[in-house]
Write a sequence for this structure.
């Protein structure tokens, strides 16, 4: 009787877990096909591993949670890399948003890293109908502007290489913007990262309306190349700083995608968060409630 | 020995399925919190129940699977109703796409249904930053144009009411478009639905570029109201018909959002699927591979 009991219990318990295991295996397979988010993450990692013949993405799930600690602005075509996560706008062939997480360690400059070794490369995880190519930018008159800045990720060659994926890029006016005012804003962020515990930066494009001669509001922007890559009218950067005393600070900037005179101070581009949220259709750092902030943007 | 064997088998098999059942229950709960799509469905149903004091959405999960049988074009802000499912574009305050499933039964006209009793209503499941309002359309000169057509859902007052949610609406030129050419296309779809087993229709906005005097390509569109609701340059309709012999047919149409002369035949607006996919950034009916189609659009 006792032996019968023990056998039944052993068989019962092991069947119970076998059931769970087989069902999970089966469902994982199914879910990865049903919900693109899951599949895409895997696909990106697999693919990233062979970019430029270098081993790239390691231990991703944990890193994505770190970067996205305060919430995803949206879940449309999300792609993840070591130090940044982005959402790709298939209609405009540029990112919706790119979120970086920087620390004093991550922005350390490794003298062996050479930006000149980097090449812009297509994101083959994006369907060819929606994929921006180097050819689209050629002779367009626009720079291939980084959203996650190359200069923020110079701790290793692999990390800086990742920022050259074209899904992290949008057409930017070169002289007077990408190489000047926007670059100054990137340097300002980097300085913050060196002196604080954590800095989270969300960068992206805006398409802002203008009043026409008819008194109506119009959104107008150029598209370049065979794939009609959209040229944003503006770019935003939202910076959340967690100080060494674990206090939070928020600053938001909006810059027009045009030649900006040298003498305009950075603070003139500050903008309330709500303006950027309304214009982009996104909500940022939703998990950080406003009462956590010591200093909000003016 | 035989009894021991039988007991073990019975215990084993039942534990196996008990394991699956408990694990699924537990995981369902978890997944609904991790994947916004699922949670949103629940929220929408809860909210829909009190719209116009009428009991609306019943047995949803199954109905959503029916409507979306051949795949979701995207997963951005999905909302579901009895006869249609939509994805809302928070930046443009109009749908990305609206997918309807029609049958000979569903398009039957119930004489008790009165469209005049319907009021356009705001979608309170959308954050107020991104929500289109009736005020936005007032005095704009544009109609509140249905994507899922009111006329397709006259089997009951509840069903037709659902099509008046503003997340199913986009600004359309009234006379010469919404009330004419676009309406003719809707009637054509309805006729198809009456004579076939199943009709699936995906409708949505397009923002198509035009060559400027400078030789460059520009996208230009008006935005209306305090919430800057985008006025699309064009609208598309993709129609998949499953005939009574279970054969599949595909037709795609693109119409400019402007006064269209009466004498242009419907077939002049036919467009290859790929053109709509490239312009919208979406892929339609992905689960229906092209070899299934008897007749493709020209």
């Amino acid at each position: 009787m006792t032996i019968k009991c023990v056998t039944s219990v052993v068989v019962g318990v092991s069947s119970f877990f076998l059931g769970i295991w087989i069902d999970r295996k089966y469902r994982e397979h199914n879910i990865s096909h049903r919900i693109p988010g899951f599949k895409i993450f895997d696909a990106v990692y697999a693919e990233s591993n062979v970019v430029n013949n270098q081993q790239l993405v390691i231990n991703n799930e944990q890193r994505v949670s770190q970067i996205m600690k305060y919430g995803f602005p949206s879940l449309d075509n999300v792609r993840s890399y070591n130090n940044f996560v982005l959402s790709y706008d298939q209609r405009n062939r540029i990112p919706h948003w790119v979120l970086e997480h920087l620390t004093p360690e991550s922005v350390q400059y490794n003298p062996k890293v050479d930006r000149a070794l980097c090449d812009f490369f297509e994101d083959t995880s994006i369907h060819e109908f929606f994929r921006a190519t180097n050819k689209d930018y050629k002779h367009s008159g626009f720079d291939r502007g980084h959203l996650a800045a190359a200069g923020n990720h110079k701790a290793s060659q692999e990390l800086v290489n990742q920022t050259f994926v074209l899904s992290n890029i949008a057409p930017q006016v070169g002289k007077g913007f990408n190489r000047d005012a926007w670059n100054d804003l990137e340097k300002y962020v980097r300085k913050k990262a060196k002196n604080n515990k954590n800095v989270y930066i969300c960068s992206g494009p805006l398409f802002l309306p203008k009043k026409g001669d008819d008194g109506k509001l119009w959104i107008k922007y150029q598209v370049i190349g065979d794939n009609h890559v959209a040229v944003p009218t503006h770019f935003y950067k939202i910076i959340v700083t967690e100080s060494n005393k674990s206090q939070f600070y928020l600053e938001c900037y909006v810059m027009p995608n045009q030649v900006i005179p040298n003498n305009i101070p950075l603070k003139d581009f500050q903008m309330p968060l709500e303006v950027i949220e309304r214009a982009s259709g996104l909500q940022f750092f939703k998990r950080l409630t406003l009462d956590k902030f010591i200093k909000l943007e003016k």
User: Anything to note?
Assistant: The first helix of chain B runs from residue 2 to 34. Residues 65-292 of chain B form a domain with the Extracellular Endonuclease; Chain A fold (CATH 3.40.570.10).
